[in-house]
Amino acid sequence: MDSVSIDQTDLDKLNDKDKAELRQFITNEQQRTRIQSQTHALTDTCWKKCVPGAVKGGALDKNEQGCLANCVDRFLDVNILTMKHLSSMRQG
Amino acid sequence: MDSESVKKAVIRQILTESNTANARQLIEKVNENCFEKCIPKPGTSVSSSESSCVTQCLEKYMAAWNQVNQAYIRRIQQEVGNGTFSA
Fold first, then answer.
1. What CATH number should be reported for the domain holding residue B46?
2. Tens of pLDDT along B35-61?
3. pTM of this prediction?
4. What ipTM score was computed for the predicted complex, to two decimals?
5. Which CATH number covers residue A76?
6. Which of A7, A90, B52, B68 has its CB surrounded by the most CB atoms within 10 Å?
7. Which among A41, A52, A36 has a CA at the least distance from the CA of A79?
8. How close B31 gets to chain A, by Cα (Å)?
Protein backbone atom coordinates (compact mmCIF):
# COMPACT_ATOMS: atom_id res chain seq x y z
CA MET A 1 0.00 0.00 0.00
CA ASP A 2 1.38 3.41 -0.87
CA SER A 3 1.43 5.72 2.09
CA VAL A 4 0.81 9.03 0.32
CA SER A 5 -1.58 10.71 2.69
CA ILE A 6 -3.71 13.56 1.45
CA ASP A 7 -4.23 16.58 3.67
CA GLN A 8 -6.18 19.81 3.42
CA THR A 9 -3.37 21.72 1.68
CA ASP A 10 -3.35 19.07 -1.05
CA LEU A 11 -7.15 19.26 -1.41
CA ASP A 12 -6.94 23.07 -1.76
CA LYS A 13 -4.92 22.50 -4.95
CA LEU A 14 -7.86 20.85 -6.73
CA ASN A 15 -9.22 22.95 -9.57
CA ASP A 16 -12.96 23.17 -10.29
CA LYS A 17 -12.88 20.65 -13.10
CA ASP A 18 -11.14 18.03 -10.96
CA LYS A 19 -13.47 18.78 -8.02
CA ALA A 20 -16.48 18.13 -10.23
CA GLU A 21 -14.92 14.91 -11.53
CA LEU A 22 -14.24 13.76 -7.97
CA ARG A 23 -17.82 14.50 -6.90
CA GLN A 24 -19.11 12.39 -9.78
CA PHE A 25 -16.66 9.62 -8.95
CA ILE A 26 -17.77 9.60 -5.31
CA THR A 27 -21.45 9.51 -6.25
CA ASN A 28 -20.81 6.49 -8.50
CA GLU A 29 -18.70 4.78 -5.84
CA GLN A 30 -21.43 5.27 -3.24
CA GLN A 31 -23.93 3.60 -5.54
CA ARG A 32 -21.56 0.72 -6.30
CA THR A 33 -20.93 0.25 -2.56
CA ARG A 34 -24.66 0.23 -1.79
CA ILE A 35 -25.29 -2.42 -4.44
CA GLN A 36 -22.40 -4.53 -3.15
CA SER A 37 -23.64 -4.33 0.45
CA GLN A 38 -27.14 -5.29 -0.63
CA THR A 39 -25.63 -8.17 -2.65
CA HIS A 40 -23.89 -9.42 0.51
CA ALA A 41 -27.20 -9.41 2.42
CA LEU A 42 -29.10 -11.07 -0.45
CA THR A 43 -26.43 -13.74 -1.01
CA ASP A 44 -26.59 -14.59 2.70
CA THR A 45 -30.39 -14.95 2.59
CA CYS A 46 -30.52 -16.83 -0.71
CA TRP A 47 -27.56 -19.10 0.07
CA LYS A 48 -29.46 -20.38 3.10
CA LYS A 49 -32.56 -21.06 0.98
CA CYS A 50 -30.98 -22.36 -2.23
CA VAL A 51 -27.91 -24.28 -1.10
CA PRO A 52 -29.14 -26.62 1.62
CA GLY A 53 -27.26 -29.78 2.54
CA ALA A 54 -23.59 -30.61 2.11
CA VAL A 55 -21.27 -28.78 -0.29
CA LYS A 56 -20.25 -31.11 -3.13
CA GLY A 57 -17.81 -29.31 -5.40
CA GLY A 58 -17.05 -25.65 -5.82
CA ALA A 59 -19.53 -24.89 -8.61
CA LEU A 60 -23.24 -24.13 -8.51
CA ASP A 61 -25.51 -26.65 -10.23
CA LYS A 62 -28.38 -25.66 -12.55
CA ASN A 63 -31.03 -25.90 -9.82
CA GLU A 64 -29.06 -23.74 -7.44
CA GLN A 65 -28.44 -21.15 -10.14
CA GLY A 66 -32.14 -20.94 -10.99
CA CYS A 67 -33.08 -20.83 -7.33
CA LEU A 68 -30.67 -17.96 -6.63
CA ALA A 69 -32.03 -15.89 -9.53
CA ASN A 70 -35.63 -16.51 -8.39
CA CYS A 71 -34.70 -15.79 -4.80
CA VAL A 72 -33.38 -12.33 -5.70
CA ASP A 73 -36.44 -11.51 -7.82
CA ARG A 74 -38.98 -12.72 -5.24
CA PHE A 75 -37.16 -10.93 -2.41
CA LEU A 76 -37.42 -7.68 -4.37
CA ASP A 77 -41.09 -8.41 -5.22
CA VAL A 78 -41.77 -8.63 -1.50
CA ASN A 79 -39.83 -5.42 -0.95
CA ILE A 80 -41.95 -3.58 -3.53
CA LEU A 81 -45.20 -5.13 -2.24
CA THR A 82 -44.36 -4.01 1.28
CA MET A 83 -43.70 -0.45 0.16
CA LYS A 84 -46.94 -0.36 -1.84
CA HIS A 85 -48.95 -1.76 1.04
CA LEU A 86 -47.45 0.68 3.52
CA SER A 87 -48.16 3.62 1.25
CA SER A 88 -51.80 2.50 0.81
CA MET A 89 -52.13 2.20 4.61
CA ARG A 90 -50.85 5.74 4.98
CA GLN A 91 -53.39 7.05 2.48
CA GLY A 92 -56.34 4.96 3.74
CA MET B 1 1.36 17.76 -6.03
CA ASP B 2 -0.76 19.39 -8.73
CA SER B 3 -4.53 19.16 -9.08
CA GLU B 4 -4.38 16.10 -11.33
CA SER B 5 -2.17 14.07 -8.98
CA VAL B 6 -4.24 15.06 -5.92
CA LYS B 7 -7.37 13.87 -7.75
CA LYS B 8 -5.71 10.58 -8.65
CA ALA B 9 -4.49 10.07 -5.08
CA VAL B 10 -8.02 10.67 -3.70
CA ILE B 11 -9.52 8.23 -6.21
CA ARG B 12 -6.91 5.60 -5.37
CA GLN B 13 -7.55 5.95 -1.65
CA ILE B 14 -11.33 5.70 -2.04
CA LEU B 15 -10.99 2.59 -4.22
CA THR B 16 -8.66 0.94 -1.73
CA GLU B 17 -11.02 1.63 1.14
CA SER B 18 -14.19 0.48 -0.61
CA ASN B 19 -12.53 -2.66 -1.99
CA THR B 20 -11.19 -3.49 1.48
CA ALA B 21 -14.66 -2.99 2.99
CA ASN B 22 -16.19 -5.23 0.33
CA ALA B 23 -13.60 -7.97 0.87
CA ARG B 24 -14.14 -7.77 4.62
CA GLN B 25 -17.89 -8.26 4.22
CA LEU B 26 -17.34 -11.22 1.90
CA ILE B 27 -14.88 -12.88 4.29
CA GLU B 28 -17.29 -12.40 7.20
CA LYS B 29 -20.17 -14.01 5.28
CA VAL B 30 -18.10 -16.89 3.90
CA ASN B 31 -16.76 -17.60 7.35
CA GLU B 32 -20.24 -17.62 8.86
CA ASN B 33 -21.94 -19.70 6.18
CA CYS B 34 -19.12 -22.15 5.47
CA PHE B 35 -18.44 -22.74 9.16
CA GLU B 36 -22.12 -23.57 9.51
CA LYS B 37 -21.98 -26.00 6.56
CA CYS B 38 -18.57 -27.59 6.94
CA ILE B 39 -18.04 -27.84 10.71
CA PRO B 40 -21.29 -29.33 12.05
CA LYS B 41 -19.56 -30.72 15.15
CA PRO B 42 -16.36 -28.86 16.02
CA GLY B 43 -13.62 -31.32 16.98
CA THR B 44 -10.19 -30.73 18.47
CA SER B 45 -8.85 -29.65 15.04
CA VAL B 46 -10.08 -28.96 11.49
CA SER B 47 -10.00 -32.33 9.68
CA SER B 48 -8.81 -32.66 6.07
CA SER B 49 -12.35 -33.33 4.83
CA GLU B 50 -13.61 -30.26 6.70
CA SER B 51 -10.78 -28.24 5.22
CA SER B 52 -11.57 -29.30 1.65
CA CYS B 53 -15.26 -28.60 2.32
CA VAL B 54 -14.32 -25.05 3.34
CA THR B 55 -12.30 -24.55 0.15
CA GLN B 56 -15.18 -25.74 -2.05
CA CYS B 57 -17.70 -23.78 -0.02
CA LEU B 58 -15.67 -20.58 -0.50
CA GLU B 59 -15.61 -21.08 -4.29
CA LYS B 60 -19.29 -21.86 -4.34
CA TYR B 61 -20.21 -18.89 -2.15
CA MET B 62 -18.30 -16.54 -4.43
CA ALA B 63 -20.10 -18.03 -7.46
CA ALA B 64 -23.41 -17.45 -5.62
CA TRP B 65 -22.37 -13.85 -4.85
CA ASN B 66 -21.69 -13.15 -8.52
CA GLN B 67 -24.96 -14.77 -9.58
CA VAL B 68 -26.94 -12.74 -7.02
CA ASN B 69 -25.12 -9.52 -7.97
CA GLN B 70 -26.01 -10.02 -11.66
CA ALA B 71 -29.65 -10.81 -10.89
CA TYR B 72 -29.88 -7.80 -8.57
CA ILE B 73 -28.39 -5.37 -11.10
CA ARG B 74 -30.65 -6.75 -13.86
CA ARG B 75 -33.68 -6.18 -11.64
CA ILE B 76 -32.63 -2.65 -10.65
CA GLN B 77 -32.26 -1.73 -14.33
CA GLN B 78 -35.67 -3.23 -15.07
CA GLU B 79 -37.33 -1.32 -12.22
CA VAL B 80 -35.65 1.92 -13.24
CA GLY B 81 -37.03 1.32 -16.74
CA ASN B 82 -40.53 0.76 -15.26
CA GLY B 83 -40.25 3.93 -13.19
CA THR B 84 -40.87 2.01 -9.93
CA PHE B 85 -38.45 4.18 -8.01
CA SER B 86 -39.70 7.56 -9.21
CA ALA B 87 -41.08 9.67 -6.38
1. 1.10.287.810
2. 999 999 999 999 999 999 999 999 999
3. 0.88
4. 0.90
5. 1.10.287.810
6. B68
7. A41
8. 11
